[in-house]
Amino acid sequence: MSQSALGREVGVSQQTIHKLIVGQSRSSGRIGKIARVLQTTPDYLEGETDDPHANAPLPAPPREDVVQVAMLDLAYGMGETFLEHSPEVRHEEFPLAFIRHFTKSRVTDLMIAEGVGDSMAPTIGPNDLVLIDRAAINLNIDDRIWACAIGEMGMIKRLRASGEGITILSDNPLVPDNHAADGELHIIGRVVGTFGRL
User: Measured between alpha carbons, how far is 48 from 36 in angstroms, rounded to an integer?
Assistant: First the structure.
């Protein structure tokens, strides 16, 4: 695990993790969480023992009311953006009841990504997070919002089937509609929820 990935999991900067590793910092209020992420003990990390599992507490039983949802380090343009082929993925815990407000799909079919731009405003704001259901890939109801791609360009748009293909709609009235021929547009999943930032 990289220092930056560990920092993200724990909620501290990469610099903080680096200082702990090289000994520039000796204490951290998050040493317990760092140990849990690394599947070891605070005693081992602080050099108190050579056994990485000494004095380890018993693992907590899995909670049925909390689920892990994939968070992609990937931005879908509300407009268009280039898609990365291998975005970094981490998992965040969410209450299952909260997720069920948006979808009944399997949690493994869900992902959260960032929307960038304002072509879907006011429905989705710039830099809002979007919950995407990857099990929903059939354009069976017009005017829903979808994560989709044309070639290497990813976007979040309303889609409407037409006789010649698919009409790509923006909620922002200043952004003109677009069109994709049959077979040109790849649906990644349906946007089933958004999380706004203030």
Answer: 17
Helices assigned H by DSSP within the chain: 3-10, 14-22, 31-37, 42-45, 96-100
Cα-flanking dihedrals φ and ψ of residue 82, to 5°? -70, 135
Rounded to whole angstroms, how far apart are CA atoms 177 and 154? 16
- The tokens for 135 are 């099990």
The CATH number, out of the four listed (1.10.510.10, 3.40.190.10, 1.10.260.40, 3.40.50.720), of the domain defined by the range 3-45: 1.10.260.40
- DSSP string for 80-115: -EEPPSS--EEEEEEEHHHHHTT--S-GGGEEEEEE
Instruction: State residue 28's pLDDT score.
Output: 63
> In degrees rounded to 5, what are phi and psi of residue 166?
-130, 130
Q: Are 154 and 188 in contact (CB under 8 A)?
A: yes
Distance CA(29)–CA(59), nearest Å, equals 21
Note the pTM of the prediction, 2 decimals: 0.64
CA 4 vs CA 12, 16, 29, 50, 71: distances in Å: 9, 10, 18, 25, 16
- pLDDT tens digits, residue range 96-150? 999 999 999 999 999 988 878 888 999 998 888 899 999 988 888 888 999 888 8
